[in-house]
Amino acid sequence: MKGIIKGIIKKGWLTRGAVLCATLFLTLFCLTGGQLVKADTITGTVPAGTTPSALAVNEVTNKIYVANTGSDNVTVIDGTNNSTTTIAAGTNPYAVAVNPVTNKIYVANLNSNNVTVIDGRDNSTTTVAVGSFPRAVAVNAVTNKIYVVDSINNIVTVIDGADNSTTSIAVGTSPWAVAVNPITNKIYVANNGSDNVTVIDGTDNSTTTVPAGIVPSDVEVNTVTNKIYVANASSRNVTVIDGTNNSTTTVAAGQFTVDVAVNMVTNKIYVANRFGNSVTVIDGTDNSTTTVTGFSQPFAIAVNAITNKIYVANFNNQVTVIDGTNNSTTNFAVGTSPSAVAVNPVTNKIYVANGNSNNVTVLSGDGNPTPTPTPTPTPTPQTCTPFTTVTEGDLFPGGIVSFGVSSGPGAVIVDHVNAGTGLQSFTVVGAPTNATVNIPVFTTGTYAAVTVTFTVPNTSQAVDFTLRAASSFHAANIRVRCLAPTPTPPAKAMLTK
Fold first, then answer.
1. Measuring CA to CA, which residue among 356, 217, 229 is closest to residue 300?
2. What distance in Å separates the CA atoms of residue 484 and residue 416, rounded to the nearest whole number?
3. Which residues of the chain have pLDDT under 70?
4. Are 475 and 468 in contact (CB under 8 A)?
5. In what order do the strands lie in the sheet with 196-201?
6. Pick the CATH number of 6-364 from 2.60.40.10, 3.10.20.30, 3.30.450.20, 2.130.10.10
7. C-alpha dihedral over 17, 21, 27, 29, to 10 degrees?
8. pTM for the complete prediction?
């Protein structure tokens, strides 16, 4: 959890002291007047796009935003009933952050070098150009500034949320993660390639460099103590920065520390050690540590500060729940390859993005199931088994022998020979006749077979479309056809005498 106060900030509270007061008020209220903590249960699975990679929660609107890297869109989950809406984004959306005050959502698109800004009121979008390979984004809800890392050109792009204008700030080498302290208006950028942290003063964008460990991979802030925690993947430790003077302390952790999360109520910090199959728990009062074991390549971690539960996504398709009171653990089976986890502390719901099963697992921390909407029945798609004709393409001769082509019901399989540059592009030529064609995402240069699927809107008519498969030197045109069915002649009338 990026901060328990995000969901309760109101527009009239926008001062740094008020944000801190809101944090402490919510903490005291929940500790003294909240309900008893109950067992976690899995309440449902929500379909998402292809390869969901990141999650962010707007605790005010109870909407969850899922960045789908493989399908270039964002799935919006309504937390009240798990219904979904899909919004187009840029190429390979990889990170997402929410401003709960303005109800704007910021999606960093890894390979189109821009940010999709979603207006949460109506899901309309605006595109803002940023630097190359934006892989992380963070929001200061107090100043309405958004910070996006450019991992190629070593800059951070600052978006002014008021008008989407941008400013660039030079940082260290290969900036990898970013976190904000809205109370001090300081921004912390973990530089993966230069082993340091750039501290940006949000008032004037001046910077200070603070040394960290080897390959800092994540950074989080405790806004109550003004301490910053940097997970150093290769040096197996955490750099603790004192936000008052940028002095540092090093705390030992496990092997390949990849993610860190903070419980601002208990002042405990949780560090996922992926290859150590453990989580290091740091006591923020004295930096003493406890190691919790029994994980399987823990990759992502999130905290519910109200219930004192910690949620850890594991490589073995499980989420481990740590009880912060005694570090006992419980495992839940989720989808395939869980890649991100986020918490809504207001509703006590936990959302797990499953990268290879293209869905989101929903856990309820209070043991009460969330209703699942009744899906609209989907008509069974109609199809046919086509025949194909392969001809030379528009590059050097040799396209026909470079690609093996076969077909099946509603499918055409294209397999590049195991030589040369592999499959570089695969497209539909022109407009298909009576066919809806789907070319799956594939790895450029693959030698593996790629299966194109299609459906037929009108089974009484012929199907005809052309595919173009190409390597760097050869291309083949593949004409795909199904003939119209022959009408059955009417039965002859019987003559009667």
1. 217
2. 30
3. 1-38, 367-381, 486-497
4. yes
5. 175-181, 186-191, 196-201, 207-211
6. 2.130.10.10
7. -170
8. 0.70
SS3 of residue 402 by DSSP: helix
For 89-140, the three-class secondary structure string (H helix, E strand, C coil) is CCCCEEEEEEECCCCEEEEEECCCCEEEEEECCCCCEEEEECCCCEEEEEEE
Q: What is the pLDDT of residues 161-191, one digit of tens each?
A: 999 999 999 999 999 999 999 999 999 999 9
pLDDT for 365 equals: 84
Kind and range of the H or E element at 28?
Answer: helix 16-33
Q: Name the amino acid, one letter, at 374.
A: T
204 Cβ partners below 8 Å, 6+ apart?
A: none
- Per the CB < 8 A criterion, the answer to whether 12 and 22 are in contact is no
Task: Specify whether the CB–CB gap between 234 and 213 falls below 8 A.
Answer: yes
Express each pLDDT in 334-391 by its tens digit.
999 999 999 999 999 999 999 999 999 999 987 544 444 444 444 555 778 899 998 9
Residue 423 is given by DSSP the state: B
Distance of alpha carbon 293 from alpha carbon 313, whole angstroms: 14
Element (H, E) at 32: helix 16-33
Q: Could you identify the residue written with the tokens 């918490």?
A: 343
The DSSP element (H or E) to which 67 belongs, if any, is strand 63-68
Which run of H or E residues covers position 33?
helix 16-33
The whole-angstrom separation of Cα 127 and Cα 452 is: 31
pLDDT at 246: 98
Domain locations in the chain as residue ranges: 6-364, 387-482
